[in-house]
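Continued from yesterday's entry.
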Amino acid sequence: MNENTPITIKDIARKFKCSPSTVSRALNNHPLINEDTRRNIQEYAQKVGYQRNSVALSLLNQKSAMLGVIVPSLNHFHETAMIEGLQNKLQAQGYMMTICVTNERYALEKEYVEKLLANRVEGIFLSVSQETYDSGQYEHLSKVLNRHIPLIFIDRECDGVPASSITVDDYWGAFAATEHLILRGGKRIAHLKGPNGLTVCEKRFKGYQDCLAKHNIYFDEALVINTDFKAESAIAPVRNLMSLANPPDSVFGVNDVVASAAMQVIRELGFSIPDQVAVIGFDNSPFSAYLNPSLSTVDRFGKLLGEEATGLFLNALSRKTDQQETIVLRPELILRASTLA
């Protein structure tokens, strides 16, 4: 036999002069197979490098043990933490994950869903792309539900599709962050906003606006600057903000990356943090605790979100019904030196 040819159950059966079904049972610890025979076959299979044909097994068992995870990006700590949470729980259950990145595009999301279905996944975890929201096209998701395959929305809900979801209350997190800046004396609070139209950005912006209104603080459009979540997109805007005749006394960043860039610019321009300018971010990225000064932020519990999402999937699998569950996690304000006197 060619050494590059994979060893099959039939090859092992010829070696032990038995049927392939006997070998299969021995490899699966079937109690009807003599213990010595089981051990001998398993040891030989390991020695010759036998590997199970997972595709054939999935066809036989009608289970693939594969799951799809579709996210808009992997550029931020929150997404990677979610996937870590999913993997922590699902790996222990014997599942493997296929991770797909849409870059906020509907066409890619639709293509990934169709490919995952073709590969017989047992469930799909989806963080809906912004283009899908904007287009309102959910036919690809209906295909998942029509096959009675569990569909779990993670991080972003989708009101138009009847499926279970787990999200974080971004509005509340932004409201709490803004209120903290106000209660410590902030009157001119700048917001480094994410891209216009992106759902999470708009929720945080709304939380910021509503908090200003609650405390009767004038909403100044000049203090709201768009970023693209990246550090470099915040540098010039923050320079412009701090050069105003009446510069901001506080800055709320849409994420920790732009907030950390803001801190660097503010300090370079000679302002002290937090005495002259308080800064708060969003996400509780690991680096935020080790900046100088350490960055106050909002913890979105990405890993916990992933872990809890697995519970929704397993519940859907065991119920074998289309009953929906909804979980909304309350984020936590993490206060550090960038806002504390």
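--- second protein ---
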Amino acid sequence: MLESLGIGAAAAAVYQEMLKDTSAGVTEIGSRLGWNEERVRAGLDELARLSLVRPSWEDPSAFRAVEPEVGLASLLAGQEAELRRRQEEINAGKQALELLVSEYGHLNRSRRSLDVERLDGIDAVRLRIESLSVNCTTEIMGFVSPGAQSAASLDASRPLDLATLQRGVRMRTVYLESVRNDAPSMDYTRWLVRTGAQVRTAPILPPRMVIYDQETAVTPVDPEVTRAGAYIIKCRGIVTSLCELFEQVWRSAEPLEKSDDGQNEHGLSAQEQAVLHLLAKGHTDEVVARKLGVSVRTGRRITATLATRLGAKSRFQAGAMAVARGWIDPTTAD
């Protein structure tokens, strides 16, 4: 019962024994409680700190219990004072919170009223993506490039994706074909599909992009350095164009479950066709590798294989010969 006043169980037991017999000493209290002297003195020390015992006027080496109506009332008054202080702090905290929310909300509404808003740094971007995901009600569409995703990115995405899908929001995502070469990323995409998302792959993708409810788009400030920041786009005309771009890519992309060894009538995989398009347009090995989401070494290997099949002596000649033979349509954008 006394523990509610901040008195430990041992100290409370010693105090109650002292109230029963005001003349009882350490030895007698220990005998009654079945404790050793050290444990009794520890209880007395706590009682002294709480001002519940005082030295005897008759025997300065002994202690006497302070009457409950005095000692316990003092403890209770102290707790009430502490409660009032904490309540004042809580009230002050509420006022500060209301002021901060009011000020931030005003600034936030001001920023979000813009058609295009720039966010700098990965923290700002992830916080806004979290907010957009939580408030999304119908559909999320996105391109994810490069193919392989970092562990940090996957860890940050999983709880948001799960919560979004559980709310019944439709989710469609297109990954680079090269995602199939990365086991952790493939595990994640398969988990997305099992959880209810739709996932497809394409050999080449536009820069990374996410569109929420066909109203707000998030695109990188610098496609080469995604950590640099992002643009939040609400301009209706731009968002509508980005939605149409997504639908075009989605229609031509392959379902995740489909094997990546499918070939066209010329014996070319989707990835090989993409490489030939890039070669025909004169792109460097580095650009080819980046757009495919593979290493430069892998990109060069694919290029060399295609050049050998075509009998070409250079990368650009391989692209030109592919166009001449009708292997690729030169009017198709890369």
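Residues 68-112 form the longest helix (45 residues). The chain is about 55% helix and 15% strand. Will compare against the first tomorrow.
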